[in-house]
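Practice problem: predict the structure.
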Amino acid sequence: MNKILTFVLMLLISLQAAAQWGDEEIDSEASWQDRVFTGGGFGMAFSSTQDYISISPLIGYMITPKLAGGVTFQYRYSKYKIYTPSISTNDYGISPFLRFNIYPPLFLHVEYEYLNYEYPNSLNTAETFREGYNSFMAGGGFFQPVGRRAGFFVLALYNFSYSANQTNTPYDSPLIIRAGITAGF
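Answer:
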C-alpha cells in the first residue's frame, strides 16, 4: 500500500511541475541523431530474506513527434538468503516497446517482454531452474523533462500474460511500476 501511495504522490508533484513543459517537442524534420534517445532504470532492494539488483538500459527512436519505439535490455541479480547456503540467480531479457505521448507529460506505453528467469528449486537448495517467460504489457505514465534532452519517467503497466495460478513466476502481481531516466545524445 505504501508503494501505491508514494507513486500517487510522486505523480501529483510531477504533473504540477511538468505542466510548464511542452514547447520543446521534436520537430518532424529533425535529423535521426536528434530522434535517438537512451536511458534506463536501476533498482535494488535488500532485506533479511532476499537481495535484488536490477539494471535496464534502453535505446529508442522518435518515429513522429508523438510516437517513439525502442528496446529495453534487462539484467537482474537475486540472492535468496532463506536457503542455507544462500542461492544467487541471474535473469536477463529484452523488451521492445512503443510509447505514444498523449499530452505532455502523459503517455501510453505497450511492450512485449521476454525474460529468461532463474529460480531456486524449493525442494533442493543446491539446484536452480531456468525458464523463459513471455509477457504482453500495456499502461501509461508520465515524463518529467530535466533540461532539453533528458528527463525522468514513471510508468505503471498491467501484465496481461500474468496468471495467479502459475508457480515460479518472475512477477508477484500483474501490476508493474517502473521509474528511470532518459537522455538524448
